[in-house]
Amino acid sequence: VKATTIRAEVIAIGTELLLGDIVNGNAAWLGRELAAVGVNVDQMTEVGDNRRRIVAAFEVACSRADVVIATGGLGPTQDDITREALAELTGVRVVRDPDLEAALRARFAASGRTEFPTNNLRMADRPEDADILLNPAGTAPGLRVRHGNAVVYALPGVPREMREIFRCHLHDELAAVAGQGTVLLSRQLRTTGIWESEVSHRLADLDAELEAAGNPTIAYLASERGIVVRISAKAGDHASAAAMVDGVDARVRALLGDVVFGVDDDTLEGVVQRLLLDAGATVASAESLTGGLLGAALSTVPGSSAAYHGGVVAYVTAAKTHALGVSSDLLSARGAVDPDVAAAMAAGVRERFGTTYGLATTGVAGPTEQDGKPAGTVYLAVAGPPAGSDAGLRTSVRLVRLSGDRARVRELATQAALDLLRRRLSGLAEDPPPFSIRT
Amino acid sequence: VKATTIRAEVIAIGTELLLGDIVNGNAAWLGRELAAVGVNVDQMTEVGDNRRRIVAAFEVACSRADVVIATGGLGPTQDDITREALAELTGVRVVRDPDLEAALRARFAASGRTEFPTNNLRMADRPEDADILLNPAGTAPGLRVRHGNAVVYALPGVPREMREIFRCHLHDELAAVAGQGTVLLSRQLRTTGIWESEVSHRLADLDAELEAAGNPTIAYLASERGIVVRISAKAGDHASAAAMVDGVDARVRALLGDVVFGVDDDTLEGVVQRLLLDAGATVASAESLTGGLLGAALSTVPGSSAAYHGGVVAYVTAAKTHALGVSSDLLSARGAVDPDVAAAMAAGVRERFGTTYGLATTGVAGPTEQDGKPAGTVYLAVAGPPAGSDAGLRTSVRLVRLSGDRARVRELATQAALDLLRRRLSGLAEDPPPFSIRT
């Protein structure tokens, strides 16, 4: 197997990066995507909205790399000058593209406003020699030019637009060039409710064995949504690489067990929705500390109204009684952060919304304690038929102790609630070892 | 006032940055710190654990800048090679520092472990010409060398250690050189509900005038939460710089009007909470397409239960009737995406939760249309006393047309709902020109 090595550089354009007003998440995202298609990134650069420096950065990157990907500087304002810098780089004029102008005007007209901001027309400009990469997520298109032996792609700095243009226009093109003779496959196993140190402890022997052989390999990534185990394999053809990935996948799952909830782009809310739809079941949410985050997660995926009917945010204690029917005696005896309160919230919302399941959260988001319970103390409850049945009622409560700041505790509590419903729907243990994610 | 301009570059070292396994938060942090002491960062670079490329990156940065700050590559493992690269850069040997070695061994002994990992001794190495910058937060010290006309600082990549060494050893040294007679102040004006192109259009003349004079200046940042206008000023003392910022602040507000909702770290939800508390008022949320995001926003800030009591996610149509009392005749005649439905949701949740205000969202999140209405069509409603009054009931509805994918539409709808309540509480126009944020 002879791998063609494609060398890439990334240039992020924008004075706000140099001032630290924003963190360069685009570069990291591109790094991951390029690695996944087998393209090596040698260097990344951040440069301000300064034409001379932008051109110089392009010039030097093109002298070293096969592929240069730039982000930023394609918006409508006067300091968005990537178009002009590219034209200077390749020695051509900037021209206004009539198709882009027509599309911009049509988009504007559809927005219902009357006075077209002429600045916007800058987004219809392109270097005369540039190919247009249409933007499925916004207004400013991407651009592609050649300079010397390098191909230069310029993408908008808005993360969502940058990603969509990459997916539509760059991904397959780069994978095709990089993959000649070699197939690099990777798969991410997504986990929830387990520490990174526990993952690495359980996989230590497997990791050492794989590292000694060199291919396939595993790596751990601590993401906002749980620890990810990435399996990568190189081979001469797709089937061989896939077989290698499958082999490691099975071994990792045997070691980690049911904390693995999905692969690659799977999300916990997407997995839960699929399980609900498969079971012909519905759910309603009853939230205290999460304040709506659980409902927002359950309604993330298009078409989620088939499974998620809605719910109640009972943020103050009185609302737990009037909107969910939790006994006020129970609340005054125990406070709101209590397993029986969680159970009553789940049962109450299930009854009021007429859904198969009710899913509830109550706890202390922080930063300070509440009723003598420390920040991060969270009770979750699910009420509905027992696993594998569609009749009967079983309510289970799970206590989790989460660390991190207020936002993190609320996010982790939401994930833990989704995981509880996943476990019920999948017939897994509903109170596994303490739920925690390293913060 | 004559400002001494110190030009800096930042070099972050580590293959994990190029693979996107971590985001380069260190660079952004350094960017902010350097801007605050009046040092201009011209360029940032990320390079992998490759000695030739690290040396080349140092060489070129030193040829352009007065100060070069590197992060990463100072740990104990074989791929930590910043020490060796610096020695190659300045043409000296790497030597083992006996004081550092003694400190390492003492630190290890204090940890209670028995077998000293010899790799750790790499952290006692330094280029022969390097000054040691002791690490108050960890093991690996920082290093300082001179090359050509530049001073090079090498700091560990662990964020906490990097920050502590910067604070102890670099901050005052750089501030002293950069700040000879100069104070740099900046303020961010945060807006909502206005396009970036519209901001730059309205500020074009002011921007041109300021740019011609050079100080103070304004810049625009498109963030996920709205467009930000940053005002920066340099002067010989704090009072003069503050007066310059205040002067531009007033001119920007005069041109942008009430779309400016706050400054610096203000958030829309934080501003709304403060307005509610100031008015002694409370709010409940009734959500359809936002699915809980509005409640989550209203409960973001610690102590928000004093103003936010909770709400209902009426995700399916039937829930709008059973949980909020919206007329089923109205719903079957008009569908759920309708101004009168929004108004009835706001009024219904206000009544059920007994709050001062009810705030409602209904609309089409997408990706597909609903009841003949295109994705992005959203009605928002607020029910409660008229502005400036605490009695009476006035319900107003705002139609917004949002662009972007499903997640973006839901997020923007949440922001627009918060903005509607902000406008009611502040006595501002409740139906300003169409709400939109460039996506």
How widely separated are the two ends of chain A?
41 Å
Mean pLDDT of chain A: 91
Output the strand order for the largest sheet of chain A: 2-1-3-8-7-6
Annotation, overall tally of beta strands of chain A: 17
Radius of gyration of chain A: 26 Å
Please name the two chains that share the biggest interface, counting residues whose Cβ lies under 8 Å from a Cβ on the partner chain.
Answer: A-B, 91 and 92 residues
Beta-strand percentage range of chain A: 15-25%
**Shape annotation of chain A:** globular
Helix tally of chain A equals 15
Q: What fraction, in percent, of the residue positions of chain A are helical?
A: 25-40%
Which spans of chain A of ≥5 residues are poorly predicted at pLDDT below 50?
none
**Major sheet characteristics of chain A:** 6 strands, mixed
Oligomer: homodimer
Helix vs. strand class of chain A:
alpha/beta
Main traits of this protein?
globular; alpha/beta; 17 strands
